[in-house]
Amino acid sequence: MTIATTTARERMLLAKDAARQIALLDDGRKSRVLRALADAIEAAADDIVAANGEDLARGRASGLSVALQDRLTLDVGRVAALAAAVRDVAALPDPVGRVLEERILENGLQLTKIAVPFGLVGSIYEARPNVTVDIAALALRSGNAVVLRGGTAAELSNAALVRAMRGALAAEGVSPEAVQTLDEFGREGAKELMQARGIVDVLVPRGSAQLIETVVTSSSVPVIETGAGVVHVYLDESAPLDRARDIVVNAKAQRPSVCNAAETVLVHAAAANRIVAPVVEALQAAGVTVHGDETVAQLARDVVPADETDWATEYLSLDIAMRVVDDLDAALDHIRTYSTQHTESIIADDDAAIDRFLAEVDSAVVMANASTRFTDGGEFGFGAEVGISTQKLHARGPMGLRELTSSKWVVRGAGQVRG
Amino acid sequence: MTIATTTARERMLLAKDAARQIALLDDGRKSRVLRALADAIEAAADDIVAANGEDLARGRASGLSVALQDRLTLDVGRVAALAAAVRDVAALPDPVGRVLEERILENGLQLTKIAVPFGLVGSIYEARPNVTVDIAALALRSGNAVVLRGGTAAELSNAALVRAMRGALAAEGVSPEAVQTLDEFGREGAKELMQARGIVDVLVPRGSAQLIETVVTSSSVPVIETGAGVVHVYLDESAPLDRARDIVVNAKAQRPSVCNAAETVLVHAAAANRIVAPVVEALQAAGVTVHGDETVAQLARDVVPADETDWATEYLSLDIAMRVVDDLDAALDHIRTYSTQHTESIIADDDAAIDRFLAEVDSAVVMANASTRFTDGGEFGFGAEVGISTQKLHARGPMGLRELTSSKWVVRGAGQVRG
Predict the structure, then answer these.
(1) Minimal Cα–Cα distance from A124 to chain B, Å?
(2) Which CATH architecture has domain A8-226+399-411?
(3) Is the dihedral of CA B237, B239, B240, B244 positive or negative?
(4) With pLDDT > 90 as the criterion, what percentage of chain A qualifies?
(5) Which of A202-211, A266-275, B40-49, B241-250 is predicted with the least confidence, judged by mean pLDDT?
(6) How many CB atoms lie within 10 A of CB B188?
(7) Is B54 helix (H, G, I), strand (E, B) or coil?
(8) Cβ-nearest to A408 among B202, B217, B366
(9) Chain A 353-382, CB below 8 Å of chain B: which residues?
(10) Are A369 and B414 within 8 A, CB to CB?
(11) Whole-number Å distance between alpha carbons of B210 and B261
(12) How far apart are CA A332 and CA A336, in angstroms?
């Protein structure tokens, strides 16, 4: 642990001050700064990998799980991939300055609503050093300064990455204070970040459901919740078997550890005899354990009995829950009860069922006849993804650079006063 | 106080359930329901005025200030005005269902981002029974259910208004549970409302700075902050005297008690000799007390000495602070330090100064050569105003019906899976 020469609050104030400079950089300048950041990260690869080796040694000594060790690991290849991702962000269109609305009032006042940076973006995340670079690049590209709190497990890795980025900012004539870390302040740093309303404009937590819950309930800074996905696929009475099978297997097994992977399949009772057995077999062939209700267990082999807990579980593994429901209304009821409002998909040929499902399911993304794995900033064409918002305020669903901007009204007059 | 037959949480769950029905009402139906609401409020005017009389008697007995008594008072004329405001909201365009974005991906997926209701909107406010009706009408028009917590001082008035509105909903075949009050649960009701994350989708506090601060720091439900306005008018070196005088007087004196009224005038040092005395005299002629720094006191008569406290004060009265600053940079510094980021206006002829001010002042509304009193949903042409947001998340500046909606992505496919 390094000795902090400033307090967490002082660092945030320095970042807030630097934010003013970043907000005024033009498109070309921001792109150039980001490319310099990418170069600096690659140039510092040896330092970064060495610091990461120390984090890993400490992690192994303290019993960090193999999965978390993998997330934590940075080798030269992964550092190069981080730099490449920054270059991709550099090439994206500038979200700042877009005209969102224009109107001229009868009294002649000219109103323009334009996209402006938030100012200072905060992020609290867990042992994933890649987030350090991702969030910093996205924040800077959208004209914001950034304050990072990445957890002690990756502290030395994050410090090396931040050092490289701050060096690049300084070399480009931009205040290095625009990128700050609070890692060395431990839990106190996170707490101060969550209470920095008026200094930090928005806070984006990334990590486990527990981390997000803590931030959401403790923060007085406005939060964008990037939440868990208890994602449903509903197989309607009219669902063609091939399509149902292909989409369920893809939605679950193509990458089971992510939030847009399906966790529960609901099957219309009238389609159960036709669909349950072949879909279960296809899932099992892909290595998936099916947790089913009694009807599913009667219709297919090797089904693990499911209970209430399964309906509410985000497995993030090669497990899926399956339930037979009476009809579309029962499916909508189930989704209303257990969904985290991330993504739900209906597989059907019946337009009336599709229209009702799309209108009545209240989730960030509602789909018909597509794999839930498509809920993704990259797939949606945003070029980069800040996270997937499961709240309704400000941003909902995959967030790109635009979601890291606010707006302001610019009013031009000629001396108008109110009568 | 009436005996509650349900708990605060039960009421919120009933409202949440009713929200599903409201969300699916079409434009014409919502307008009709609102007109029925207006009729019911007028028909119940005697009941409402009688209940209000009891609230007022209690208020007078407990020493409620005359100003608060005035805010609390409902006579037949004010009830009719409330009903008329509901009819205005009924006539506004439906904000739900607007297509916000459309794209077709290379794989053929059709993406549409549409405006959807939040679901359940909560509001915490103080002794203003008009807010009970305003917020309910705005929430219903935008397809939301609403849960209200209006304070004990107006409890009987609010109850009578809610009774009338719920009766109208039931008569229109819409669940009356879509409009709920938690008034009779006292402080506990407010607390439960602020902790109802997952049930209440967004919370809009309306009232004093202290009330808003409490909600912002205590609520785990996402909040839209409608904040205080320490609003600045900056008189540049290039400011024409007539325009400066007219705008400053209008911005302060046309209605001093509202958040968009000016509270501080900053004057460029090079314009001070020319501008300070006549502007102070015009303000004084309009009944305004000027709290000035030393330079202002030297240049004009009857100036009350101002100190640091004045710069940070939202007077909401016929008082204004005035300070002479070295230049535009010093004005920007002052605004950065003391502004609540509501509205600031520059009075100038110099385009370079105007452009810098509009770009660098980080407020919800930035103006050139216009009175700050124009920051208003009605003036901006929104037809109705939910409040003026001083936060950067979701909504910034005057909020209309659109700001009471969220969005969802609708994805239509033909069996696409992710490769």
Answers:
(1) 17
(2) 3-Layer(aba) Sandwich (3.40)
(3) negative
(4) 88
(5) A202-211
(6) 11
(7) helix
(8) B366
(9) 354, 358-360, 362-371, 373-375, 379-381
(10) yes
(11) 19
(12) 6
- Between chains, do A408 and B24 touch, taking CB under 8 Å as contact? no
C-beta atoms of B408 and A381 within 8 A: no
Q: Is residue B394 within 8 angstroms of chain A, CB to CB?
A: yes
- pLDDT higher than threshold 70 for residue A197: yes
Please judge whether A224 and B393 are an interchain contact, meaning their C-beta atoms are less than 8 angstroms apart: yes
Neighbours of A261 (CB within 10 A): 25
Residues 6+ apart with CB under 8 A from B191: B218
| CA-atom Rg of chain B in angstroms | 24
What DSSP designation does A184 have? G
CA-based radius of gyration for chain A: 24
User: Shortest Cα distance from B183 to chain A (angstroms)?
Assistant: 24
Residue B31 CA to residue A16 CA, distance in Å, equals 45
pLDDT band at B1 (very low <50, low <70, confident <90, very high): very low
> Against a cut of 0.90, is the pTM above it?
yes
**Longest distance between any two alpha carbons in chain A, whole Å:** 79
- Asked if residues B112 and B101 have their Cβ atoms less than 8 Å apart, the reply is yes
User: At B418, is the secondary structure helix, strand, or coil?
Assistant: coil
A411 — contact with chain B (CB < 8 Å)?
yes
Q: What is the pLDDT of residues B78-91, one digit of tens each?
A: 999 999 999 999 99
Burial (CB count within 10 angstroms: exposed 0-12, middle 13-18, buried 19+), residue B1: exposed
Give residue limits of the domains in chain B.
8-226+399-411, 231-374
Burial class (CB in 10 A: 0-12, 13-18, 19+), A252: buried
Query: For residue B258, what are the CA distances in angstroms to A390, B86, B316, B384, B389?
Result: 35, 22, 6, 16, 14
Cβ–Cβ gap B366/A103 under 8 Å:
no
DSSP B338-375: H--SSEEEEE-S-HHHHHHHHHH--SSEEEEEE-GGG-
The pLDDT score that the predictor gives to residue B3 is 54
What span, in angstroms and rounded, lies between the C-alpha atoms of B237 and B266?
11
CB A347 within 8 A of CB B411: no
Look-up: residue for tokens 């292909």?
A246
CA–CA dist A107, A412 (Å, integer): 11
What's the complex ipTM? 0.93
CA–CA dist B71, B81 (Å, integer): 14
Contact list, B360 vs chain A (CB under 8 Å): 20, 24
pLDDT tens by residue, B128-182: 899 999 999 999 999 999 999 998 899 999 999 999 999 999 999 999 999 999 9
Check CB contact under 8 Å for A418 and B373.
yes
pLDDT of B208 > 90? The answer is no
Residue with token string 């033909």: B414
Cα gap A174→A160, rounded to integer Å: 19
**Are the beta carbons of A220 and A197 closer than 8 angstroms?**
yes
Written as one string, the DSSP assignment of A245-313 is HHHHHHHHHSSTTSTTSEEEEEEEHHHHHHHHHHHHHHHHHTTPEEEE-HHHHHHSSSPEE--HHHHT-
**What is the architecture, at CATH level 2, of domain B231-374?**
3-Layer(aba) Sandwich (3.40)
Cβ proximity of B134 and B105 under 8 Å: no
